[in-house]
Write the structure tokens for this entry.
Amino acid sequence: METTPSVSFPRLNERAPDFEAPTTHGIKKLSDYHGKWLVLFSHPADFTPVCTTEFIAFAKAYDRFAKLNCDLLGLSIDSHYSHVAWVRNIREKFGVDIKFPIIADLSMAVARAYGMVHPGAADTSAVRATFIIDPDSILRAMVYYPMTNGRSIDEFLRLVEALQTSDANKVATPEGWKPGEPVIVPPPATTAEAQARIDEKGYDYVDWYFCKKTL
């Protein structure tokens, strides 16, 4: 009886799986990105239209990610020769340079370690998975998309900045938050703190558990 290879899934707020893999920029390891944020993202295959639109969008946002101390790293289960040809094709046909490396994961080792292979979607391709890893190599966010629909790269920029804001200020961010908008203050842990919150200065008070402030 044929069995399907087991697929592991990383978990939030735990160390991201280590890897060492060939890329279009040479061998890359997770440790190469220590001290920086990293967006690691997979695509089903080179020379496919939806993936091409995503890569163009990531490339156009490259400098914006860089300003957030964030690197980009792509992946698909294709050879590095295929990746190189695709990068050259995107430059020729669309006038866009892909400045970030792309992992050639023919062995599927990285894809399986990160839970990018979903047999219900495809046995031999990585789905559209996106992982945000912080400077301590801790996995902070992950998002999966179906084969048929492209991602919003602006959302990943927003999410990286939201995570950085939460870390720096010990706050949460509301739905759709963007830099400059009010943030959510952590709710008090005791009844005395809840009562005191009513009169605290600088808060947009709605109720003891729901307060915002401007940074």
